[in-house]
């Protein structure tokens, strides 16, 4: 793994007994001693600490930074209140998704967090289209931690009481363990929690301070994946790609009315014609939740059919596996809209057999956000 | 008891051979959440993929270690697929088979050789 990048927490992961694997060019912990199942359940019961330092942190600054970003992202950024965060995505000319991301209004800049595998492309994309009117500055000297689960509030409040006053999607600069941290009340597990950008040189000490709480365990990428799957949250490169539009991906909720047809700042982003007409006219396929009837997990790539005999597929699974909290298999995928109604029985072809599964509401486990 | 390079163990019990996977294998796989077993009475050839194991991470196949017939499968794995995680060489067995050529067993490792392989 010598050519892999390491996060500031690398040695801590190794000392905690993590199994390290290559992920998006980094050596990352896939699991620790508890294993994926127990790590997942612990996060939902108490709190888990995740190292997400491989993700890209970017400052976009300048008088018109919000307006500039709106030329690349179909989201209301100019209307985002100071110290509030929102989910979004870069789109391409065809309406496909280049990456999904988080945007926070920090007053004098917009703070953007993007996926590790896409960060070089995302930064180049922003620099090409936005500079020199606004500045695009990758933040390389900071780690990113996620503290997730019902105990997260109590754990972080012990380090700074102001953590308690934050609502879901609030952002703030907080002193944690003597270090200036950029904190958001958010995450990607379906649980309440925080994401914490911390100077790299303070990251290990902060992680150790959080892990010192009896409710906190370190959690690897394996459980991060099963948690976000149960949460009905998309994984870029799998559930959303340049081949899927936000409307097909059931992410229309993230495109505020002001950017849609008839809105004050309608369109003006790549693929706007396609995306806005899809919002009005509908799409032929969409992303849905799927619950296999049996115990066998159905994973990415499983082809879906309307019945046991038909030869024409009506969809494909894009993420799937065992949901530890659900206690059984769960999946998501794209199906033609005539088969997308909740409760519809479909069949997935698994090892030559057609096995039933049902279109289901997401998330598969109730979200525990502090609104 | 004999061991394969695929991390299966084979334990002769009379004229029957009990097959499972090693503790090393279950540790590598992680928590097992589903096991698909062959049907009793199936005739298998060595290296046929006859069991599918799904862990929280991925699906993997177990190969028939010998030519022969499946004469019993561990039905308890239906209710508790994690049995191999808990007791790999005991309660967590997968199937019992009758070998058509028991001498095929000779090519497999003894415990010392297997331990050397995984160390």
UniProtKB/TrEMBL annotation, chain A:
Catalytic activity: N(6)-[(R)-S(8)-aminomethyldihydrolipoyl]-L-lysyl-[protein] + (6S)-5,6,7,8-tetrahydrofolate = N(6)-[(R)-dihydrolipoyl]-L-lysyl-[protein] + (6R)-5,10-methylene-5,6,7,8-tetrahydrofolate + NH4(+)
One GO CC annotation: glycine cleavage complex
Group of enzyme by EC: transferase
GO terms, biological process: glycine catabolic process; methylation
Coiled-coil boundaries: none
Keyword flag Transferase: yes
Protein name: aminomethyltransferase
Gene name per UniProt: gcvT
TrEMBL record, chain B:
Matches recorded under CDD domains: GCS_H
Keywords, comma-separated and alphabetical: Lipoyl
Entry note: cofactor: Binds 1 lipoyl cofactor covalently.
Chain ranges of the Lipoyl-binding domain: 16-98
GO biological process, one term: protein lipoylation
InterPro entries: 2-oxoA_DH_lipoyl-BS, Biotin_lipoyl, GCV_H, GCV_H/Fam206, GCV_H_sub, Single_hybrid_motif
GO CC annotations, alphabetized: cytosol; glycine cleavage complex
Statement: the UniProt record of this protein carries the keyword Disulfide bond: no
PANTHER family: GLYCINE CLEAVAGE SYSTEM H PROTEIN, GLYCINE CLEAVAGE SYSTEM H PROTEIN-RELATED
Functional description taken from the UniProt entry: The glycine cleavage system catalyzes the degradation of glycine. The H protein shuttles the methylamine group of glycine from the P protein to the T protein.
NCBIfam families registered for this protein in UniProt: gcvH, PRK01202.1
Protein name stated in the entry: Glycine cleavage system H protein
Organism: Litoreibacter roseus
């Amino acid at each position: 793994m010598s050519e892999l990048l390491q996060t500031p927490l690398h040695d801590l992961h190794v000392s905690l007994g993590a199994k390290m694997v290559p992920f998006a060019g980094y050596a990352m912990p896939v699991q620790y001693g508890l294993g994926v199942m127990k790590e997942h359940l612990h996060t939902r019961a108490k709190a888990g600490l995740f190292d997400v330092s491989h993700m890209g942190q970017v400052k976009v600054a300048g008088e018109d930074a919000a307006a500039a970003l709106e030329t690349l992202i179909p989201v209301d950024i100019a209307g985002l209140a100071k110290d509030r965060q929102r989910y979004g995505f870069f789109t391409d000319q065809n309406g496909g998704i280049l990456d999904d991301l988080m945007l926070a209004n920090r007053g004098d800049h917009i703070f953007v967090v993007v996926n590790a595998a896409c960060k070089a492309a995302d930064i180049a994309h922003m620099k090409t289209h936005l500079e020199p009117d606004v500045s695009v500055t990758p933040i390389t000297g900071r780690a990113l931690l996620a503290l997730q689960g019902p105990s997260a509030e109590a754990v972080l409040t012990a380090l700074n009481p102001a953590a308690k006053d934050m609502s879901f999607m609030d952002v703030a600069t907080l002193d944690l363990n003597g270090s200036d941290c950029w904190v958001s009340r958010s995450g990607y597990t379906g649980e309440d929690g925080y994401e914490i950008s911390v100077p790299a040189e303070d990251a290990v000490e902060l992680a150790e301070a959080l892990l010192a709480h009896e409710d906190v365990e370190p959690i690897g990428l394996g459980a991060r994946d099963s948690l976000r799957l149960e949460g009905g949250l998309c994984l870029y490169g799998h559930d959303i790609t340049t081949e899927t539009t936000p409307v097909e991906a059931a992410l229309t909720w993230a495109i505020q009315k002001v950017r849609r047809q008839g809105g004050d700042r309608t369109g003006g982003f790549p693929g706007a014609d396609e995306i806005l007409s899809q919002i009005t006219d509908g799409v032929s396929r969409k992303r849905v939740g799927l619950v296999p009837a049996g115990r066998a997990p159905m994973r990415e790539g499983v082809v879906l059919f309307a019945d046991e005999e038909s030869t024409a597929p009506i969809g494909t699974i894009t993420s799937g596996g065992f949901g530890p909290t659900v206690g059984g298999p769960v999946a998501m995928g794209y199906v033609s809209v005539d088969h997308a109604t909740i409760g519809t029985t479909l069949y997935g072809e698994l090892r030559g057999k057609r096995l039933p599964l049902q279109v289901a509401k997401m998330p598969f486990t109730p979200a525990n956000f502090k609104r | 008891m004999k061991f394969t390079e695929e991390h299966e163990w084979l334990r002769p019990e009379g004229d029957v051979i009990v097959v499972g996977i090693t503790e090393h294998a279950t540790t590598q796989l992680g928590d097992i959440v589903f096991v698909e077993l062959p049907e009793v009475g199936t005739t298998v050839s060595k290296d046929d993929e006859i069991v599918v194991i799904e862990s929280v991470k991925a699906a993997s196949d177990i190969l028939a270690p010998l030519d022969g017939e499946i004469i019993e499968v561990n039905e308890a794995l239906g209710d508790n697929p994690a049995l191999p995680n808990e007791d790999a060489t005991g309660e967590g067995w997968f199937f019992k088979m009758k070998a058509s050529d028991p001498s095929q067993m000779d090519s497999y490792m003894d415990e010392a050789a297997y331990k050397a392989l995984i160390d």
